[in-house]
Please model this.
Amino acid sequence: MKKIFFLIFLTSSFVSHSQTLQELYDKLINKDKPVENRVHFKEVMTEIVTLNSTSNEMWKGGSSKTALYVKLPLGTVKWYYRVTLMDVRQNYFYNPNESLFSLISNDHPLFVNNQTSLGINFYIINDYAKNDFYADRNFSRYTDYENEKTRGFNGICNLTYNNLMICLKNYNLKDGLKAIVEVVAYGNY
Model:
C-alpha cells in the first residue's frame, strides 16, 4: 500500500509540474535567440524647483542654482526635455494630457506655457562639474545643449551617459522663479 501511495504521489507531482518544466526547457532552448525590443517612451523626471534671485542668494542664503540628475533607463537612444518658468509665488501645473510624456507619446505638437517673462540659463553637464557650477567657477558643459538667457523651452538631447545633470541658474537680481523640468526618454526597452 505504501508503494502505491508513493507511486501516485510521484506521478501526480510530475504531471502537475510538467508545464513548468516545459516552459523552462523552452526558455533554455530559446535563450540565444534575440529578444525583439520595442521602441518606447519612458517618463524620467517631472520636478518643480525654486530658483531664488541672486540678491536673495547673497543676502538670505537661498540658491539661484539647481542641478538635477537625469537617470536614463538602459537602452535610451535620446531624450526630450521641457523647462517651463513661472513666478516664484505661482503654483502652475500642466494637465495630464499636456505633460511632456503625454504630448510626445501621443504625437501631439510640443508647447511651453511660460507664466513669466523672466529667463534662466540652462546647461547639461556631467556630475563631476557640479561643484564648479554651484561655486560659480568655470565649469565643463555640453555647449550644443547650452541655452542662456532664455525663457522656458523644449529640446532633444542625444547624450546617454549615466551621470548627466540638467543645471538651471536664475540670473535675475530681484525676482525668484519656479521651473517645471520634465524629461522623457526614448529607446529600446
Remarks:
- The chain has a mean pLDDT of 87.
